[in-house]
Specification:
The protein is of the alpha/beta class. The protein has eleven helices and nine strands.
Length: 295
């Protein structure tokens, strides 16, 4: 008797959950691995899941499920991750994009001057620590006349990001620079965005295996208190931002108060902190104040 796709996916879901993967994530991963092998979208998979598995599929599916069962990262298995409806190449060279990072793009769309859509000279956007390029590419796609500078210290990450920019037709407007943070960037920039490393060094060992063992340490480790890179970025951003320029940055669990405290005494003014879908404070939105001229 032939086995259906649904039966195989349900069995894989149970195996992944038994391996310590959170049940909802296990269900998503099992279905995604199946669709990855089949090359199907969600609609096609739902429509055909009660049919017999194609020839060769069960053995191929067993192979990728076993890899995930050993807590190999999904990004390392599929080499693809979706971000705001765009498919990005990912892998061990880069941090796989998370849904919460989409908040930065949403805030940019709500607040960045949209005249750039119609003007010949669009805004300059700087993506610090671009990784796979998900922010740089998404913002270049949303603001068709924007010029984007994307920085990263990793040449391997920049290669992945450049391929993603070409894949989505914005390679001519995104300039990739191998540098630390904003080094060499002069501005003025309408917007700086970043998802910097913000995990305290001492917490790295306690991360899930698929993060700890499969994602680049330099994209995770934020130093002793998790704020080493954040501190440096916030200190240098005013050099690149003109009055009214925006900074939008992701940070970690429990870091809201120390991150916002870093704005004290600077010309960066806190506009808001945005919670993610789990109601965890996640994204800083700040704006450069106008120069105050004393009498």
């Amino acid at each position: 008797m032939s086995v259906t796709l649904r039966h195989l996916v349900l069995a894989a879901r149970a195996r992944l959950a038994a391996a310590g993967i959170e049940p909802n994530e296990a269900a998503l991963d099992a279905a995604l691995l199946a669709r990855h092998l089949l090359g199907w979208d969600v609609a096609r998979f739902v429509a055909h899941q009660t049919e017999s598995a194609p020839e060769g599929f069960p053995s191929a599916f067993e192979s990728v499920v076993s890899r995930r069962e050993r807590r190999e990262a999904m990004s390392a298995i599929t080499r693809r991750r979706e971000f705001r409806g765009l498919e990005f190449e990912v892998g061990p060279e880069v941090l796989a994009p998370r849904p919460e990072t989409e908040i930065i793009v949403e805030e940019a769309l709500a607040r960045l001057e949209r005249a750039g859509r119609d003007d010949d000279a669009g805004p300059l956007i700087v993506d610090v620590g671009t990784g796979c390029g998900c922010l740089a590419v998404s913002l270049a796609s949303e603001f068709p006349t924007a010029r984007v500078i994307a920085t990263d210290i990793s040449p391997a990450a920049l290669s992945v990001a450049a391929r993603n920019a070409q894949r989505h037709g914005v390679g001519d407007r995104v300039e990739f620079r191998q540098t630390s943070l904003l080094d060499g960037v002069t501005g003025p920039a309408a917007l700086i965005v970043s998802n910097p490393p913000y995990i305290p060094s001492g917490d790295i060992g306690g991360l899930p295996p698929e993060v700890r063992d499969w994602e680049p340490l330099q994209a995770l480790d934020g130093g002793p208190d998790g704020l080493e890179i954040v501190r440096a970025l916030l200190a240098d951003a005013p050099r690149v931002l003109p009055p009214g320029g925006w900074l939008m940055m992701e940070f970690g669990f429990g870091q809201r108060d120390p991150v916002t405290a870093l704005l004290s005494g600077s010309r960066l003014e806190l506009v808001r902190v945005v919670d993610d879908l789990q109601r965890i404070p996640r994204t800083l939105v700040a704006r450069m104040q106008s120069v105050v001229v004393s009498d």
